[in-house]
Design goal:
Chain lengths: 393, 393
């Protein structure tokens, strides 16, 4: 497979490029909205085009359970099924080995899941993960990996990494679809020597792109940034680097600064449905009193569909009255916010002004306190009936 | 006020016309999507324009409770607040005297409600209903009425009607906005002599339009049709006739046949969110097995956004996976179905082919059995925490 990423400009470690896929080119750095079950929650593909999304992420394991891989294959593949003609990347299901930890067993053969839908039992092997992603017809497939939670011991992380490496070989051997790029996933937790070993091993297999997995799983932000930076330093320059499950606006800026090209995260869409909206100063909760009578949009100057057509007061009302339209309008705003952020960073990289952009961003954008952030995430996980992730020490 | 309805063609009792309002003309017969709280559930104003909606219905009492009439007035009125620049009609709150029966007391002065939101107590007088609708700036306001449930005795219905008449005078005396039409509401239940008295009294007050209230409140369909027909026969030809709370596709056809010009009903949007979709043969439940792999749209030839872009299998999946996009796509389909039905009837009236259209419609469209329909409605009311309506004897 020829190079799929063309680096067009760099500024420090930050890179601007073009990721070529069978369903079109993706200007990088890029943020992928999350369509776990084949739908970015609350919005449609035309909304996504309108707000500048260029590539989506879907999930092999979720789609395997429902509606079933064969159903989608018979409908002409995932693009056709969900009416999105742009690029799609699928996670293999490895992340569900983390997020559905209480419902799975990991063995050499693969991951055995107990379905969260009907309790049935399913073995996801590396070969199956590849077969499924080939049947879905997505542009970028991910190797099956073991993604351990933060806080495990080094021996456990090493073992998870070794399995990930053996599975990477099995995935490569199984993969035949020339229209689809298969990315390897670096593991190793927060241990630099494991990360180095993982990067060395996986780059020797010559994947067309690499993901950094096993981050954003409960560790402090500073550690995540450090590990992302350390790992990008070990990856080939000419290939795409995808940091899985990241992130918040401040994470996106910090990780573009560290040489990441691709991101995905459910945060912007999830908090939107919970009435938390991004503005240049941070997050606001639109359902609170200050917005009850705000005539102007959520943010002056925002070019999203929501801000172009609706007042903050109306959004406030929709959330208070539990109107379904609230979720779509809020989702559009937050996705446009992070995608515009990517566009602005790309522009800054081209202009050699990335560091300036980064400083200005941090001066204005105040993220929620990390403790608040972790508590909110725990509450959300609990509301989903999932166990709490390991707590940072 | 000059005539606001221009009848352009008739065919039997059916009429096609143009209803003139301060925010544009409405071709009649017309169906008004229901935006109780200032939002047609799950869709936005651009969706509504796209599917051919020409006039919306909102609710004074609900908007009074939340976000508050003054909030909307300060935002420039309801059109500006909800970003809908077409005509709006508001019900006065009289219907909540029926639907929130367990939370209200009716006296000569007005209706005293206990808020379903916070339990606070509010007196809605005819004068207040007018003031609120003037503040909302809607195109058509409704007089405050007493809307009794089906199954009451004649003496009770008579008394409700007499109060409605006295309130109609108070509403007229209070109403000053020349850009807004105020409609009177005929009551009298299913008693022809009461209906005749109500029509005679209210037409003597020379409202610019008349609604038929107190139907679709639990009575058998045949009785509703009979009463609608009897009442239209008593109303002036040159003024709009609005049958409140109707209806299903078969009701729309039967009541256009009886000379009704305007309709509103939550049914198409409510059942859409419950996965029931209209097709030319009746209703289907998109979340059931037959649609799991249906590659084509919900209905071949349907011109709605949903059918133009998404397969029945995808809709099926969205409902099964409880994806929010399901509600919007299903709502768009059902609203387009009933609005296209109105467009087709209008065309048939112009062509002198209404009776033929009506016969063809009934030959193909099989509504759910009436018993099933009533049980479904009761289940829904129970799920809303409301008491069951009076059962037909």
């Amino acid at each position: 497979m020829p190079n799929i990423l063309h680096i067009v400009a760099t500024d420090g470690e930050a890179r601007a490029g073009l990721l070529r896929t069978h369903h079109g080119d993706v200007p990088t750095p890029a943020f992928m909205p999350v369509a776990t079950q084949g739908s970015v929650k609350a919005v449609d593909p035309f909304d996504l085009k309108g707000l500048g999304a260029t590539i989506l992420l879907a999930n092999t394991y979720h789609l395997y359970l429902r509606p079933g891989i064969e159903v989608i294959r018979r409908q002409g593949g995932l693009h056709s099924f969900m009416s999105w003609d742009g690029p799609i990347l699928t996670d293999s299901g490895g992340f569900q080995g983390y997020s559905l930890e209480h419902l799975r067993q990991i063995g050499e053969e693969g991951i055995t899941f107990k379905s969260h839908i009907d309790g049935s039992v399913h073995l996801l092997t590396p070969e199956a993960a590849i077969d499924y992603q080939e049947s879905l017809g997505v542009d970028i497939a991910m190797a099956l990996d073991v993604c351990p939670p933060y806080g495990g011991g080094k021996a456990d992380l090493d073992e998870s990494m070794q399995i990930t490496h053996r599975w990477a070989i099995r995935c490569l051997e199984r993969h035949t679809n020339k229209k689809q790029a298969l990315f390897g996933i670096i593991q190793g937790g927060s241990f630099a020597d494991l990360r180095a070993e993982s990067a060395e091993f996986l780059t020797s297999l010559d994947f067309p792109g690499y993901a950094i997995g096993g981050l954003s799983v409960g560790e402090p932000k500073e550690m995540m940034y450090r590990m992302a930076q350390f790992t990008t330093g070990l990856l080939p320059n000419g290939k795409p680097r995808y940091l899985m499950g990241v992130g918040s606006p401040e994470d996106l800026v910090e990780c573009v600064a560290r040489g990441i090209d691709l991101f995905d995260c459910a945060l912007p869409t999830r908090i939107a449905r919970n009435s938390a909206l991004f503005v240049h100063t941070g997050r606001l909760n639109i359902d609170t009193a200050p917005y009850r009578e705000q005539e102007g949009p959520i943010e002056e100057g925002c070019d999203c569909f929501t801000c172009q057509h609706f007042s903050a007061a109306y959004l406030h009302h929709l959330f208070r009255a539990r109107e379904l339209l609230a979720y779509r309008l809020a989702t559009i705003h937050n996705l446009r916010f992070v995608i515009r952020l990517m566009e602005e960073m790309r522009e800054a990289i081209f202009c050699g002004a990335f560091e300036e952009y980064r400083q200005r961003f941090h001066k204005r954008f105040i993220p929620p306190d990390e403790t608040v952030r972790i508590i909110q995430k725990e509450k959300w996980l609990e509301a989903q009936g999932r166990p709490r992730p390991a707590r940072p020490p």
